Structures are given as structure tokens and as C-alpha cells.
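Hi V.,

You were right to ask for the full record rather than a summary. Here it is.
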Amino acid sequence: MEDYPKTLLDFEARFSTDAACRECLSRLRWPE
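Predicted structure:
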């Protein structure tokens, strides 16, 4: 997996919205 957040604050900043979470999951599931 790419540069996964290492702290809770990093995680909250990166996945601050549902859309951000969906985008990350989509890229992991369907990388093309």
C-alpha cells in the first residue's frame, strides 16, 4: 500500500471525508 498514515492525526487529515475514503479504497481495489 502506498504511504499509509502513521499517526491518528495523519489518518484524520488524509481521510477527513467519506469521499476521500472511497477514493482510496477504489484505488486499492481497482488500481487501473
